[in-house]
Write a structure and sequence with these properties.
By secondary structure, the protein is of the alpha+beta class. It has one domain (2-60). It has helices spanning 2-6, 44-60, and strands spanning 13-18, 25-31, 35-38. Strands 1-2-3 form a 3-stranded antiparallel beta sheet, with helices on one face.
């Protein structure tokens, strides 16, 4: 997780899949400018990524 958060500036397109259940589920998709889609109830670990993406994108403004 820390490696991902520390290198978000290198990521142009991100798809996060929660594979904790029987089938993998896309829980968030983002590109360089915005979070494009997410499930209504994000797991805590995905919320950490979302906050980091929002912070990164706010720095660019």
């Amino acid at each position: 997780m820390n490696n991902l958060l520390n290198h978000l500036v290198l990521i142009n397109h991100l798809i996060i899949i929660d594979n904790s259940g029987a089938g993998g589920e896309i829980v968030m998709e983002a590109d360089w400018t915005q979070v494009k889609q997410y499930t209504p109830e994000l797991p805590d670990w995905v919320e950490m990524i979302e906050r980091a993406l929002v912070e990164r994108n706010n720095l660019e403004d």
